[in-house]
Amino acid sequence: MSYLILIGGIALLIILIAWARFNAFLAFLIVCIFIGLLSGLSAEAIIISVQKGIGDILGSLVVILGLGAMLGKLVADSGAALRISSALINAFGRKYIMWALVITCFIVGIPLFYNVGFVLVVPLIITVAARYNLPAVYIGLPALSALSVTHGYLPPHPSPVALVQQFNADIGTTMLYGFLIAIPAILVAGPGFAVTLKKYTNKPLQAFASKEMDEEKLPSLTVSMAAAFMPVVLIALSSLSSYFLPPQHAVTIFFKAIGDPAMAMLISVLFAVFTLGLHTGARMSAIMSSLGEAVKDIAMILFIIGGAGALKQLLTDSGISNQIIQGLTTLHVHPLLLAWSISALIRVCLGSATVAGLTTAGIVAPLIATTGVNPNLMVLATGAGSLMFSHVNDAGFWLFKEYFNLSIKDTIKTWSIMETLVSIVGLIGVFVINYFL
């Protein structure tokens, strides 16, 4: 009966989001009520589970995601991302322009949320393609593969951060493994796949071409790189210090303090406020207004994550999770493959990578305790599955189609295949790391 309730709940979620066009947060709440009632819980018990689930998952994430949005806004509005990309393009030259764009997207994709990063870098790609008379798809898709990888694999992006919390993983270790997996995923789905893309000579819409900015008003490359990478560096130092020094060592304690994800993001935002804002002549009131707008942009993401947390808690409180896990452990399927498969299936059905990853977490999280699988790799396996085969039900699919002026058929043959390669290579990378642990 538990299987039928779970399948019915997921089916209802898919119908509400994909067919009825419900808001994802509302859909999660409806599904929670549906599953709770069928499981025999009272209305009061369902409400308590929903509130606890939302509170538990958002309690540790609101600060990180809110500050992450603020940092991304500062990096974008100040021109720091443009400075980084311009420096890389000048350093690599025309012959290796694709690699310059790939590295640019990887760097700016770490602090920037996916949609922000997409609309920031695509005009740059279109401008570069026109300037050097190169097919926009040929140089653009590899760059966007790097953006997709950071979105699916690396904190502080919403889904990886939420998965780290749900799986009780370590954010620094997950980030380290994520980097190891990201590189081959980008190489295969980006420049590797690009050799088949030279025939797509569609002219992108020039309305999306990047506007030139006064070089003198842009922040320096050193400051731009420092602002973009500071959260990664601080979190990495925290993890590395615990590996090489005793827990009670003063250096370990210090790096643990500043490397806590929330503290690392706060330090990075304050650094960016002064170096990318006040130092460039911007007024504090204007900077704070911009940061307020950044938080508004992620409000719905927070609600969706909260809805997924409610679903996970409801599955736990109803006893469905334990019954499902007992059944799954008899299938003799590796938990990493199982997490990837469930996430990929939900992604193909729903389109949203975030919803796919977080819904999967509610189903497979108990496997970590029963199987002893590495929780950091479970985060990455789930994230890889959530990127599988983006198609017509995914907003990213339509963004790429419209910006690059492609037909639906050609978008599937380019964008959808790239996302599939990122997902599959990510799964392979997870198993390679798991083999050596």
Automatic annotation (TrEMBL):
The keyword rRNA processing does not apply. The chain crosses the membrane at residues 5-22, 28-50, 57-76, 96-129, 136-154, 174-197, 218-242, 262-282, 294-311, 337-365, 377-400, 412-436. InterPro entries: Glcn_transporter. It is a multi-pass membrane protein. One of its GO terms (cellular component) is plasma membrane. Keywords: Cell membrane, Membrane, Transmembrane, Transmembrane helix, Transport. This is Gluconate transporter. It comes from Ilyomonas limi.
